[in-house]
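Example 3.2
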Amino acid sequence: MRHLIFVKPDVLIVADEILLDKELSLELRFHPEQQAERQGNVFLATGKHVVLRIEPLTTVGVEVSGEALPLPGRHGGKQSSLFAVCLRTQRANWRNALALSWSGAGEKPTQVSLQTEGR
């Protein structure tokens, strides 16, 4: 189940709850419009008019990477790639949260943190 929480005016929280019968390799991908620069576990994608901050909030036991993933060519065309922020883990139950925040070019997007209480 995926929950989207919009915190006006510039933050979107993406919260995923994955429940399986057995442990499997799992991956979540987030695709900004352009390649993002990694700063720790945060990724910043800078465009002409906006900066997007992609911030995984639940990284314990999760491999976080930014990589160009291959896209097959269409109709005989060249193969290309698409940048993705990838979160990978191996488990049966995964509760994940990620924050997307944005600002105008030259400004810093809102930094988000997670505080858990109980479940």
